[in-house]
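As a warm-up, study this chain.
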Amino acid sequence: MNSEIKYSPISGWSVILLSLILVIGAPIAFIIFAIMTNPEFMILAIPVFLIGIVSLFGFMAIAPNNARVLLLFGKYKGTVRTSGFYWVNPFFSKKKISLRIRNFETGSTETPEITDAATGRVLQNQSRGSGKPSKVNDRDGNPIEISAVVVWRVVDTAEAMFEVDDYSHYVAVQSEAALRDLTCRYPYDSEDHEESLRGSTEKISEQLREDIQERLDKAGVEAIEARISHLAYAPEIAAAMLQRQQAQAVVAARTKIVEGAVGMVEMALEQLTRDKIVELDDERRAAMVSNLLVVLCSDSSVQPVVNTGSLYH
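Now compare it with the structure written out below.
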């Protein structure tokens, strides 16, 4: 496996003057020696001029958050990460690679760069379309739609350049695979405080980042962040799952209402007994509890019934 090697180039400003002297001075010297009819020095001026021309191909300018991977006849010699103007061996092949932070959404379509084979001119730049959620079954077998946003950057230029064919495409494919694998290990939702895709967003996002990083280690890429950007049931079961969620919400609400009503009835009976407002036997107490529960737990407003007789009639 190729690992990154730091390469320290020569400052280009210290070499450019010498190159210009060779390129400009050699033809002038050639003319002067021709006038002086000195063929030996005339012949010497020709290789000097060629050396000056060749030396011009060794200059390179590196912008911030960019790097150059240097190859000499196919052999990796090192990487220059520091921005600036430099001069290296003119026979080096200088491969540009970006160190900037990038992001993409899983499921997005990528359009490759198209160049003219004859001139090398770029006809269409590389672009990425909007993401389409992936349809995956969760742990319980429910079909869901899910997508994630992955933030990444290159940390080892040698591995990114030589270990995989196209590291950008490799990141996209492996992130999609990691997301699908993670979805199959967790349920969409959970009722018993179990980790789920919807209920444990932070933990799921961190687990997704770790899964992606494990796949990208061999490509010299760091997964900085991975977060779920879209999560929903598939259309064919969305309506049924919505009804189930509504039913669960109704049951939870009614349970809370009943708990509160029972507490209020208990408090009312205790206060009536403590203050000796009225004496109730077991039958009347049961009737009172029933009436209070009906009033407190009813979905609609109740109609009062006024008793104009005695307490027992």
